[in-house]
Amino acid sequence: MDFWKFFHRILLLACVGLVVAIVARLYWPLMERQRVLRAREAELRLNIQREAETLRMLKYKQEKLQEDPRFIEKIAREKLGYAKPGETIFRFVEDDDP
């Protein structure tokens, strides 16, 4: 009798283990997909933050361009190379020769 009781317990444990293995096998791809999607979500959130910061800076520049004549002059001098009449512009070029 003791043998059959032991055998039933082993058989029950094997069945439970088999069910757990089947369930794990079925849900493993879903868990992996969820992990990938969460990583993608974090990447996209970071991208959104960067783009929001870029947008904020562009709005600030737009505001300054509309309101501040000194800012416009600064941009014209730096980006476009403009100068006031009578001014001389010096440009320094770095040599690439070793």
Tally the structural domains.
1
The whole-number mean of residue pLDDT values reads 89
Number of helices: 2
| Share of β-strand residues | under 5%
Low-confidence segments, given as residue ranges, are none
Distance, first to last CA: 93 Å
- Proportion of helical residues: over 70%
Query: N-to-C SSE series?
Result: HH
Instruction: Give the tally of β-strands.
Output: 0
Taking the sheet with the most strands, its summary is: none
Overall spatial form: rod-shaped
Q: Which structural class best describes the helix and strand composition? A: mainly alpha
Radius of gyration: 35 Å
Indicate the topology:
Elements: H1 2-67, H2 69-80
What does this structure look like?
With 98 residues, the protein is mainly α. The protein has one domain. The chain is 80% helix and 0% strand. It contains two helices and no strands. The mean pLDDT is 89.
Name the descriptors.
single chain; mainly alpha; 98 residues; 0% strand
